[in-house]
Each structure stands twice: as structure tokens, then as C-alpha cells.
Amino acid sequence: MAGPMYRQIAQDLRRKIESGELEPGARLPNEMEFREEYDASRNTIRDAIKWLIIRGLVETKPGQGTFVVRQLEPIVTTLSEDPDTGMAGGEGKAAFAEINKRRAQRDEQRRQEREKAMLGDGESPAADQDLGGRPEGEPRASAPTVEVKFAPAYVAERLRIPDGAEVLVRHQEFFIGRTPWSLQTTFYPFDLVSRGKGAPELMRARDIEVGTVEYLRDTLGLVQCGYRVRILVRRPNEAEARFFGLPDDGRVPVVSLIRTGYEDTADGPYPFRLTITVLPADRNQFVINSGKYPEELAAPARDQ
Amino acid sequence: MAGPMYRQIAQDLRRKIESGELEPGARLPNEMEFREEYDASRNTIRDAIKWLIIRGLVETKPGQGTFVVRQLEPIVTTLSEDPDTGMAGGEGKAAFAEINKRRAQRDEQRRQEREKAMLGDGESPAADQDLGGRPEGEPRASAPTVEVKFAPAYVAERLRIPDGAEVLVRHQEFFIGRTPWSLQTTFYPFDLVSRGKGAPELMRARDIEVGTVEYLRDTLGLVQCGYRVRILVRRPNEAEARFFGLPDDGRVPVVSLIRTGYEDTADGPYPFRLTITVLPADRNQFVINSGKYPEELAAPARDQ
DNA sequence: GCAAATTTGTTCGTATGTATT
DNA sequence: CAATACATACGAACAAATTTG
């Protein structure tokens, strides 16, 4: 036959899950029942379930059982500028407007689909069962924390300041309703913040409503001439896993958006701001637009 | 103490790996030796090692042993247009130019660092030990495969064609030297390809040297007015894991770049091309530039 | 609020299979 | 072919988390 027993068991369960025979959220038989069903030892059953856990198909809860995981509906963030507002997406509050816009689009789309379905079979199809599991509620940001620290190597390199130089660190948590959505940390060279008359608002633990880029331009005359975003995928660290409620193994990666803002100097564009935004990769997608493109976004489907 | 024994053992080994006490590529003691060292059963040792495997810290090879994994040095791809060439990055051959450019930059940077180090201590520091593990060799593309298929749902939706309509599918594999780098699949509505006098080159299994966007403009008068790239992260499917040589559990995710090209019509921008590029997430990073930004790229470091 | 039942988690021991050197 | 090292599979006992009565 095909490979070890635990893999055959796992494959069989996988087929049942992917075919829909076992629905998202459904409870699987317990280990003893599986033991009889597949005529294998408990440890072998457990190996099969571990195989499914690693692949994100099921999750176990002590004292409760094993469950088919519910796929989360991705939130889509636009990284290119909005030609209307000129705002760069993916940055804290700027992204909230987009979330609300897309959500309205999506709801309208669904309403139409439902209407069409109603005409078809007459029967109301379990209305709002929401198998997808979409975070609901208002977008919301925590109060910023403000610190002055010595720059770690990866920050110093990007801000082109000496290793260990002081940086002002602003950190914020973003939520959609009660669901954690993103973590954002911004670094400014401390020298810069104390230029001229300084930028006092930056040191305070409250939102800068006008946006930091505008604030720095108005107070310090610091003009952002351009920026660069680096996108990378990695395993979450412990704090991130805790905040997002991700499993403590690294099987759900995070996307890290590293944005460096530049000001124009005699030596060319020079970095003055570094913002790192971290989001869980299993519930976020990103979009870059160029030229003329449709206003509406296709559904955030998978590509296979 | 803190939690189950296998976790304590795993934590201890993790510390040794992250502190550098165990270097990348180093062989760990075998299971029996660990059994003595930690005074635990073989199964417990194996549980500890499994914990490390899931997190990508070590890998096991039957008959050989357990090894600390070598981190791969990421390849950086620019997704925004190059203002000089106007080329959109991340698309097949267009990206090769960038790889070569960045590589030259990187080598120069390293040469300078080495020179500086030589002045400092006089001792030659193990020269080119290349702990990073960077794919070497010339960028190279496989011959394209060409098929006509019925559009799967996710393709039909993005191309706004009926579900199951025919599409022309071109597929290519990209390598750097002998290392697999990316998989790329492009879908065209079949109706479009047979417009007017048709686009015969598109049906042939060979490279279109001028680039497909230019070719379609010249033959069909099809002008791309804009595009949208959607970025998502997911587990590789079986074929992708095989091609990239990824572990067959899903612990190394892939990044999927879904690019829709639009032409200008009376109804607004309408999709005419869909390109899906898939790359392993553990060895690729992406960059988006806007406005004025430095020519050179900071090293592809991690953000923590 | 507490005790019992249920379910998964951890740890041991042992034997045999499979891949590599 | 033999030795080495990890992989699979079984059985057993107790621990920890959760729900139920």
C-alpha cells in the first residue's frame, strides 16, 4: 500500500475534510473511536492527527476533542497609493478606511448573491451562518506606546544611523472589533526628532490625528520624498503569536511590511522613518495597483 | 519547572542554536546520546526534536542524523516599476535583470566589508565560507508549456469570463543556476487569443523574447492600461513542494503573486491576462518603491 | 461550587522497518 | 553485508483541561 499507516489514516481524513464530508468546525471522533475505526493504536491515530494539525486542517482542544478548522476570510490591504486620497495603504489608520469600503462592497455583493439564490430555490439557505469567520466590528487602534531605545542592528542599518544610536519608538496595536489585526512599530532617529524646535507630539502617547508624515512636515519641515516597502514572511515571535492568538508552533506565518520613508538631501534620499507592520499571513492579502484598474476588487479567493 | 520535559529539552537546544553554540549545518548528537544527556526516554527526545523541526530549526535525515538548518539568503524582487526601464518586476525574465544587478551590488558590498575587516585584524576570516547558502549560477527559464484548458473558478472570476470557458495556459519554471526559483502560469481568455489575425506566438512552446505585453500590443492591438497584483501566502501544494524541494509538510509557505492585466474598454478596465507566480517564502523578499528612493538596497535582513 | 466523566497531552518501554554510510 | 540513525507502530500509565451532572 501507500506508505505508513498513520499517513493513510491522515489522507483518508484529509479527503473527508476537503470534500466537505467533514464540515469546518465539525468535531471528529475521539481517539478511542478512531482506534476502532482504523484498527490502529492510539499513538498511531495521534500521529495521523498531528500530520493534519501541522497542515492546518484540524485543531485539538484538550478535554473537548479534535475539530476541522474554519478558514478565515482574508482582509485585503492596498499597498499602492489610492489615486483619490493619495494615501499609502497598509499603514495604521489609513488602512481602516479601506477595510470599511471593501466591507461595504462585499456586503452588497453578498446581498445580491443571496437575492439571486432566493429566486432559484425559494428555500432560505441558513441565512447568516458565516462559515467563513470574518472579523466583525469597528476598526480600532490602541493608544500608542512611546519609548526611547538604542537602535537594534536591523533598525540602525535601514535608518543609516550608528549601531546603538538612540531611536524614538512608537508602537500601536490595531483591532477589528475585538479581533487583533496588526502590530505596528515606528522608529525615528532621536536626533531628528529634536531638530530645531522639535516634534513634541511624537513623544506623547496619543494618536497624531493628522498623520505623522504631515505632522513632521509642518513642525520640522521634514518632507517625505519617497518610500520603500519591503515585504517578507516569517514565523511569528512569541509576543506576536500571543497577540494574534496564533498557535505557538510557527505554522501560521506573519507578513512583515517594512516601510522606510526618505527625505531629500544633498546626498540623495536619506531615511528618516522606519515602520514595521506585522499581520498574520493566513487572514491577510495585499494588493498593488498600477495604471488604470477596476475600482472593485475580486473576492479574496485562493489561487488553487 | 516550566512545562513538559520535551519542551524544556527543545528550549535548551533552541537556545544553543540561536546563540550560535550549534552552528548552521552542525550535526546534533543522536537520539541515544541525547537520551543520556537529558535522562529522558527516546520518545521524549524525539518529541523535542519534532518541536524543533516544526519551527524550522533542525532537520532530520534517516541514517545520517539531525542537523541545524542553514538559513537561505533571501532574493529580493522589486514589484514596482523600474523608472529607468519601465519594467514591472517579479515577472519571469524581467526579474532576472534585477537579480544580476542586485548580486553585483551585493558582491561589491561584501568585497568592501572584507577589505575593511582585513585592515582591522589582519587575519583572513575563513574567506568564502558562505554560511548563508545563496543560490549561485545564471538565471534561466525552462521552455514554456502551452495548453488550452477549461478555466477553473478562480481564473474565470479574475478574467471575468464564464466559469469553464476555454483559456490558453502558458507555464514556465525559473531557476537560478540549478536552484528552482519560481513557477509561473499565465492564463489568457481563448477568445482573446484568436481575435483578428490571432496571436500565433502565444500558442508556441517557446519564449516570446519581446515580452508578451509588447507582443499582444503589436499583433492584436491589445494595450495594457494597468494591472493589479494580489499577494497572498499559503502552503505549497504537492507539485510546488516537489519542484522547490520544500519539506512535504507545509511548514515552508509560498508567496503567490496574482497579476491581472487590464485593457481599456468602454466598460472601463477589463482583464485580459492573469499571471500567477509562486515562490518559496523562506528565500524571497519583495520591494515596492514610490517617489524618490535610494538606488541601492539595504541587505535583506530580518526584522527582529 | 464540587466531583465525576470525557478527552487530549505527556512519558515511559519495546520491537521492527527503512534509509544511509 | 554490517553498522548506524531515524521512522513507524504497539501497549501502558498518569497528567491536565474541559464539560457535565
The average pLDDT score of chain A comes to: 83
CA gyration radius of chain A, whole angstroms = 24 Å
**Class inferred from helices and paired strands of chain A:** alpha+beta
Total number of beta strands of chain A: 11
**Backbone shape of chain A:** elongated
Poorly predicted sequence stretches spanning 5 or more consecutive residues of chain A:
121-131
What is the terminal separation of chain A in angstroms? 28 Å
| Major sheet characteristics of chain A | 7 strands, antiparallel
Q: In sequence order, what are the helices and strands of chain A, one letter per element?
A: HHHEEEHEEHEEHHEHEEE
Count of alpha and pi helical runs of chain A: 8
Largest interface: A-B, 59 and 59 residues
Task: Give the oligomeric state of the chains in this entry, treating copies of one chain as homo and distinct chains as hetero.
Answer: homodimer
The share of residues in helices of chain A is 25-40%
**What portion of the residues of chain A fall into strands of 2 or more residues?**
25-35%
